[in-house]
Design goal:
The complex is a heterodimer of chains A (250) and B (290). Chain A is built from 10 helices and no strands. With 250 residues, chain A is an all-alpha fold. Chain A folds into 2 domains: 131 residues, no CATH class; 73 residues, no CATH class. Chain A starts with 11 loop residues before the first helix and ends with a helix. With 290 residues, chain B is of the alpha/beta class. Chain B has 2 domains: 233 residues, 3-Layer(aba) Sandwich (Rossmann fold), CATH 3.40.50.300; 46 residues, no CATH class. Helices cover 29% and strands 20% of the residues of chain B. Chain B has 8 helices and 10 strands. In chain B, the strands form 2 sheets. Chain B has a 6-stranded mixed beta sheet, with helices on both faces. Chain B has a 4-stranded antiparallel beta sheet with strand order 2-1-4-5. Chain B is globular and about 50 Å long. Classes of the chains: A mainly alpha (250), B alpha/beta (290).
Chain lengths: 250, 290
């Protein structure tokens, strides 16, 4: 999934307000999950998605290529629908696969057209209801940002530890079966956990040194304002979703 | 003039534990460039955390421009910038601009002012083209510059640098120091460098040595190299100082080979040809091989 990163461009999709992008994608995910019209509608939904993405400056071919990361899931989904209860058919399996593809592709488009700052802003708004329970949504969003920031660093550290252990004869990844392989990977877990705890401690110190305070009044570098296009897109999506639910569950 | 002052500071992590620092007193003024030396475990990191207000003294006082660190005033973090040895451990933002904006956001800076300062600081550090680039795509040298930018954007009076160039190649180290010296001249920054690299030692104006949690030397950089106890303090005489001063019995006058070695067995800088970062003055010119 290396291709799934923000690729800045200046098109209508990229210019949309982060909340409209996020809610829009969730609306499409709901649509793919709920619509009652079978393979034709799912196929049409995927085609519409690809046209919108292409018109919005998203590298469509690269995005489709990322589907190879979920091939196993698609096969399982297809098999379940082929071998299930009465009514199982190629048609139904195709519909299920198209729905999963649609959900995945919309998520991929969201990641491609949203900068980390936009995603953070979206999550902050999504976590807003949690403030009823006294949970600070900016803190939660910051936790997600730090997770995104340090994921590649932790993966690199795991690789470094793996190579260091392999250089000393540890047969990581080798073994007779899956259980043996998993058992062989256990030696990676402890050093990775220890390093991550050290790193978290250092990061907390560094954040404090840069003026970070829990519940401190912070300003925002990025500001997002709703425009006419955002409202139009939001109403269109709302219409599609409500129409779908109305048709499916009259 | 604003200063960072330690007044008979002791620190221990608990009442039952032995003190990490004992009765440490010194004053870092704006515009000064000071090196802090000492063995591992001598209390250097603790001292830097006390100076930045991240730890509070057990006894004594730490003051930053007259503000006692026990006041927990956010102004202390604005005035004292702390740069860690490993830049990766202090970069918080996913992209360059987000990381540069992290400190100003915490200090409540107006968004308009932030949007003016972030590109300005990035430009000064040579990161202007990379504002929207993910941090993971930057080289080690660029990440160290970004970490420095994250500190400088808060317009500090004092910078505390913990082995700032130990993970950089000679070129990145030269760039780093050039930027730092430029900023220092502009803003009259007071700088404390912890465990400076041998090649950076000659930039220092003053040196301090921590040994067993006590400040055992505070004086001119030149005097440190002549001090009879530097071996006991675990300080190695930098090759460049040996060349410059003749201390340690190996000066240009008595050994013109330029092939000196570090005391720790490393390659040193004396063998570097002229023009290479860290090469001693008068080194023979390099030649292209192959």
């Amino acid at each position: 999934m290396r291709g799934l990163t923000y690729r800045p461009a200046d098109t209508f999709l990229f210019r949309l307000h982060p909340v409209v992008k996020g809610v829009g994608v969730f609306a499409w995910i709901l649509w793919f999950s709920l619509h009652p019209w079978g393979l034709e509608a799912s196929g049409l939904g995927v085609a519409l998605l690809l046209v919108l993405a292409w018109a919005g400056g998203v590298p469509v071919a690269d995005t489709i290529r990322e589907l190879k990361g979920i091939v196993a899931l698609l096969v399982v989904v297809a098999l379940v629908n082929l071998t299930g209860e009465a009514g199982a058919s190629w048609w139904r399996a195709g519909d299920a696969v198209a729905r999963v593809c649609g959900i995945f592709l919309w998520s991929a488009v969201l990641v491609t057209v949203s900068s980390p700052a936009e995603l953070t802003f979206f999550w902050e708004q999504a976590f807003r209801p949690l403030s009823v329970f006294g949970i600070d949504r900016r803190e939660l969003a910051l936790v997600m940002v730090i997770g995104i920031r340090f994921l590649p660093v932790v993966l690199a550290e795991i690789e470094r530890i793996r190579m260091a252990q392999a250089a000393r004869g540890a047969g990581l990844g080798r073994g007779a079966g899956l259980v043996a392989r998993i058992r062989n990977l256990l030696p990676l877990l402890i050093p990775t956990l220890v390093l991550s705890i050290h790193r978290a401690g250092d990061l907390a110190l560094a954040m404090e040194a840069r003026g970070y305070r829990l519940s401190g009044a912070r300003t925002r570098y990025h500001e997002f304002r709703l425009g006419t296009w955002d409202l139009a897109a939001a109403f269109l999506l709302l219409g599609v979703l409500v129409g779908t639910i109305w048709q499916g569950h009259p | 003039m604003a200063s960072l002052t330690f007044d008979r500071v002791t620190f221990s992590y608990g009442p039952q534990t032995s003190p990490i620092l004992g009765e440490v007193s010194f004053c870092l003024r704006k515009g000064e460039l000071v090196g802090l030396f000492g063995r591992n475990g001598s209390g250097k990191s603790t001292l830097t955390h006390l100076a930045a207000g991240l730890l509070l003294p057990t006894t004594g006082r730490v003051e930053v421009a007259g503000i006692d660190t026990t006041a927990r005033d956010p102004e202390i973090q604005r005035r004292v910038g702390l740069l860690f040895q490993d830049a990766d451990r202090q970069i918080v933002g996913v992209t360059v601009e987000e990381d540069l904006a992290f400190g100003p956001e915490n200090l409540g800076m107006e968004p308009g002012e932030m949007r003016a300062r972030v590109p300005e600081v990035a430009g000064r550090l040579g990161l202007g083209e990379y504002l929207r680039r993910p941090v993971v795509e930057l080289s080690g040298g660029m990440r160290q510059k970004l970490a420095l930018g994250g500190v400088l954007i808060m317009d500090p009076d004092f910078l505390i640098l913990d082995e700032p160039t130990s993970q950089l190649d000679p070129w990145a180290r030269r760039d780093f120091w050039e930027i730092l010296m430029e900023m220092r001249a502009e803003r009259d920054l007071g700088i404390l460098v912890v465990s400076p690299q041998a090649a950076d030692a000659e930039r220092l104006e003053r040196a301090m040595v921590l040994h067993g949690g006590r400040l055992v030397y505070d004086g001119g950089e030149g005097g440190l190299w002549r001090h009879p106890a530097i071996g006991e303090w675990g300080i190695r005489l930098p090759e460049s100082v040996r060349w410059r001063t003749g201390i340690g019995g190996q000066s240009r006058a008595d050994d013109g080979s330029g092939g000196g070695r570090r005391e720790d067995g490393g390659p040193g800088t004396a063998g570097l040809p002229a023009g290479w970062p860290g090469a001693p003055p008068g080194a023979p010119p390099g030649r292209v091989v192959g």
